[in-house]
Amino acid sequence: MSITLILKPQINQLFYKVEKDSIPVQALLLPKSILYTGKILNWISPFLASRFAARMFLTPYSYEMPNREKEMYDKSAKELVRVTKINREIMVYTYGQSDKKILLTHGWSGSGTQLSKIADQLLKNGYSTISFDAPAHGKSPGKRTILPHFIETIHHLEQSHGPFDAAIGHSLGGMSLLRTTKYGLNINKLVIIGTANSITAVTQNFVKNLQLDQKVGRLLKSYFDKRYGEDLNNYSGAESAKGVKTPTLVIHDKNDVDVHYSAAHEIMDELENGTLLITEKLGHRKILGDKVVISKIIEFILE
Known about the structure:
- By secondary structure, this protein is α/β, with parallel strands linked by helices.
- Helix content is 42%, strand content 17%.
- The chain folds into 2 domains: 2-30 and 77-198 and 236-302, Alpha/Beta hydrolase fold, catalytic domain (Rossmann fold); 37-61 and 200-234, no CATH class.
- It has 12 helices and 9 strands.
- A 9-stranded mixed sheet has the order 1-9-8-7-6-4-5-3-2, with helices on both faces.
- Residues 8-18 have low confidence and may be disordered.
């Protein structure tokens, strides 16, 4: 069964201005020196450029914590936890003290407080939240990481900090939760926001933001497949969704420039019990703080 909802922008949003949310986050965060180096390598050899792109692809970029996240950060219990399977340490945040717990999973170059506005409303409705800085993100040590690290971290936290009533993931975090739910994460509800479907599309978009040729994107994807011993499209959103029976709310914005909203429809096509919420004028990041979207998430979890 699937249900589709569409949220139109409010009147004061109709005069939408070009702002940061209209630029892909990778394009915002990539230093000009990286772009120049990539272009030179692309001119010399697409193969060399693909290896350079691989290193960049595995390196999340840090940013100063926004003021809206500081209250959650200050009020959370914080602890460094070692995820034994990947031998990496992560910073874990426990926000609130309820036995009804919800796992929050950020996206690439995000942090454990990125879903703070959602966490605030969950707290008001009797839930505590567990979130984390993925390896090499936020306060967690390291320089590079990859999707399987997110996945192993989620499995580890279910054992150490669960069980969880529900899980909410943004972008790569949503893709990770689809995969872990397919392979045993025991939750009653799942919410994914701005989640990509195809790993191939993710690598091609990354190469585009690096301003490199698409041939580099194909070489990059091939390199990762060989390095990790499998077709990484096995981790794609729709592929994972095929095995998910948990009621799932799929949220995506039509103006998301980081992940095209067609990914939401592709994921929905494979879900057994999905509800689709399409928004407008919120992009990839502003959607996380939108009051109407958050109220829909709370309503879905409380059903």
